[in-house]
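WARN retry 2 of 3 for item q-0093 after timeout on previous attempt; input resubmitted unchanged.
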Amino acid sequence: MKLAKKIAALVLALALMLSLTACTGGNKEKKLVVGASPAPHAEILEFVKPILQEKGIVLEIEEFTDYVLPNQALEAGDLDANYFQHYPYLANFNENNKANLVSAAAIHFEPLGIYAGKSADLNAIPDGATVAVPNDATNEARALQLLAAQGIITLPEGAGLNVTARDVVENPHNLEFLEIAAEQVPRTLVDVDFAVANGNYALEAGITDKLLVTEEKNSEGAQTYANIIAVRAGDENREEIKTLVEVLQSEEVRAFITEKYGANVIPVF
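OK item q-0093 returned
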């Protein structure tokens, strides 16, 4: 009799365990691995991590300090998404690497800025001054366009995203351009007169106090160069990616970006 009761209890316990497994199986957490630049991208992702957790998504953030590896890792399937670039840069990567990455959503704009180095007055630029600019195609063109907008140089009429320092039409200050990787630009300030840096790298390097002028906040560039969530083609329709975008484009995130970064990072949603 006692044996029969023990068997019955064991069967009941087993049935209960199976029932609990069945109930929770449909609510299993999903994981998203997203590559990002440390600031502001990874910081924004850290902010939304607990929000995504509440929605059943575990967010794993992998930080990258360059502009090449995040897309390579995404294309290879090592990431579910990345968050560090604007669409023109992505399009250039796709073309050069025969890749098929797409934008799932635009999140924010980082105005490109001119930062003071050995010189601090754009109205008194020394003859032969050195200006550091990013050396990747889209960001170098963007840097040159910012310099042209200040009347410092003149570019060919209709100059687009393929313009380089060699295309400058008028250079009255005889500027010398130091073309280096975007992430290295802020480190050159002690050696150059001015540097044109991407907002995220300026934030990381702590040089925002040296900012002299930025792209217009309401310019076409704010849309053209908005930073995006990039994914492999087709993955923009994944529910986890849609949820990530929904959270990143929430009013809660807008308030966080505005309060933390001010004019250096501007929401575009």
